[in-house]
Amino acid sequence: MPSPSLIAAARHAPDARAQIARMAQVMRYQMEGVEECCTFVHLVQAGFTEAEIHAYRDDARAYIRGKPSANRWTAPDRVKGSLLAIKAREIRRRVNGSQWAPPVVAVIEAAHG
Fold this sequence. Notes:
Elements: H1 4-11, H2 16-31, H3 40-45, H4 50-65, H5 76-97
Helix pairs in contact: 1-4, 2-4
């Protein structure tokens, strides 16, 4: 098993999407071949490192099935948070664009009876 840092580096590599597509192509080719399966050895022979295999194999399987990638989707809370951050920036721009005036405080004297 490769170290978590190597797997993270493979996931965040600039060519990760292309590598996932290439791995899916290798898997599909091996599944249609004589053995009808794709093993770890087949992927190593195709030039993938151990870290790349661990990082990309689930994404490649999803790619073959035409489903969204398990590791590449954005969580709903993250989407909601980014929308709230955009609204907060708009509010800040609006507040910073207008002139600020101190609030008017009315002094009410208590009636002494």
